[in-house]
Specification:
Largest sheet of chain B: 5 strands, parallel
Helix content of chain B: 40-55%
Shape of chain B: rod-shaped
Helix content of chain A: 40-55%
Largest sheet of chain A: 2 strands, antiparallel
Number of strands of chain A: 2
CATH class of the largest domain in chain B: Alpha Beta
Low-confidence stretches of chain B: none
Strand content of chain B: 15-25%
Mean pLDDT of chain A: 86
Distance between the termini of chain B: 182 Å
Order of helices and strands of chain B: EEHEHEHEHEHEHHHHHEEE
CATH topology of the largest domain in chain B: Rossmann fold
Structural class of chain A: alpha+beta
Oligomer: heterodimer
Structural class of chain B: alpha/beta
Strand order of the largest sheet of chain B: 4-3-5-6-7
CATH superfamily of the largest domain in chain B: Hypothetical protein af1403, domain 2
Shape of chain A: elongated
Number of strands of chain B: 10
Number of helices of chain B: 10
Chain lengths: ~80, ~350
């Protein structure tokens, strides 16, 4: 797993902890260590990007006769 | 009030202040006015307080407010569902607080009335809706401060039941810090104020950015340490006695092999010479011992007429004819005299 799909923040953070554990482990082969490092860097970038998102939106849910309607409202 | 229209009498005690809705009728025969009550509501702090206590006790007995029931909120909620009025400061402050602290979370709102008729049903319905559609990872219900009457919807049993039913954790953020509604007690987490709820629901991005920064550094350090350890391992192996001496040892073995080979060769050659000499000697010795060689030295073979060889003179008779074999030629002779 080299270029994982951008997951949720939680998934990325959990994976980062796992990577850190594996890098600590002496039995991890050296080549895997490089791959894990690379993946870790990618995930850190991804998390940073998620946290830097400045857009403020809410999804307002209204139930009409045709079912649920979701309206996106941008906060001032 | 007719018995069939009676609200749960548990809500009312003697002396409670009530608001009655109904028709005024006249009972002509008795000359009395009658109030035909269709709806009865508690009024004023006193009666509401009493109703609150009664309901609280009843629900508490069911274990609804037990801390063992309360669930942990997700650490990094991806989707947050809010239930509150679409207007007013609460939704704005709450949404603003959540998005400022934790931008990755997606915010949903089901707008409801937060007081008055039907409010409780709408609030309960919204909680159910989030559950039914599995839309969010945590639900936040709340409203701004107000009187006990204003907050009453959040004390209604229908809302408490919806909170208990909810498979998604619920945060209750109703009124001011001093206000404790039954929703607050039943929820998994109580926020003292709606704006305070944001800090309870999501982590702060400042802390997370710090963690990311630390993680980035420690990843580099960890990798460096891995590389150093591997280099040391390799060095230990190649500098070790066994490894270093290996070319030398191979060479040594090779020399030994050559030596053995050479000695084998020379031994073989020497062996040949010795054997040849030995054979020649043996041949000479053999030849020296051959009858021909003996005859050559002057001896002769003497045989009787029957072919037997003569070794003993006592076997001879005077006048006997004997055959003589010499190195060269043969002869016959007769015995003249015998000496034993």
């Amino acid at each position: 797993m080299n270029r994982p799909e951008a997951g949720t923040f939680e998934e990325a953070f959990k994976r980062l902890e796992e990577i850190s554990r594996k890098l600590e482990d002496a039995s991890t082969p050296l080549e895997d260590s490089f791959k894990l490092f690379e993946e870790g860097q990618f995930l850190l970038e991804h998390c940073q990007k998620l946290l830097d998102d400045a857009e403020r939106r809410i999804q307002v849910i209204k139930s009409g006769r045709d079912g649920l309607k979701i309206e996106e409202v941008v906060l001032a | 009030m007719w018995r069939t229209r009676t609200a749960p009498s548990s809500l009312f005690q003697d002396g409670a202040k009530v608001r009655a809705y109904g028709r005024v009728t006249v009972w002509e025969q008795a000359g009395k006015y009658q109030l035909d009550v269709q709806n009865l509501l508690p009024v004023g702090i006193g009666s509401m307080q009493a109703a609150f206590e009664l309901l609280k006790n009843r629900l508490s007995a069911e274990g609804i407010f037990d801390s063992s029931r309360k669930r942990q909120l997700p650490k990094y909620p991806n989707r947050i569902g809010i239930v509150t009025s679409p207007t007013g400061a609460v939704i704005h402050d709450l949404a603003w607080g959540l998005t400022t602290r934790f931008p990755p979370a997606k915010i949903f709102l089901i707008p409801v009335a937060v007081q008055g008729d039907g409010a409780a049903a709408q609030i309960a319905g919204a909680i159910d809706r989030y559950n039914h559609e599995k839309m969010v990872d945590v639900i936040v219900i709340g409203r701004g401060g107000g009187s006990l009457e204003d907050l009453w919807a959040f004390n209604e049993e229908i809302v408490v039941r919806a909170i208990v039913r909810s498979k998604i954790p619920v945060v209750s953020a109703v009124g001011h810090e001093v206000d404790f509604t039954l929703s607050d007690l039943a929820a998994d987490v109580r926020a003292p104020t709606p704006t305070g709820a944001a800090a309870l629901v999501v982590p702060d991005r400042k802390d997370l950015l710090q963690t990311i920064h630390n993680r980035r550094e420690s990843l580099t350090t960890q990798l460096e340490r891995r590389v150093i350890l591997w280099r040391e391992r390799i060095a230990r192996i190649t500098q070790g006695y066994g490894f270093k001496k290996l070319p030398g040892r191979i060479n040594d073995e090779r020399l030994r092999l050559d030596e053995i080979s050479r000695r084998l060769d020379s031994a073989f050659t020497r062996g040949q010479i010795v054997r040849t000499t030995a054979v020649a000697t043996k041949r000479e010795q053999l030849q020296a011992l051959s009858p021909q060689a003996v005859l050559g030295r002057g001896y002769s073979v003497i045989r009787k007429q029957d072919g037997t060889m003569v070794r003993d003179s006592s076997t001879l008779q005077l006048g006997e004819t004997l055959d003589l074999s010499f190195f060269v030629g043969q002869a016959t002779a007769s015995i003249d005299s015998i000496k034993v």
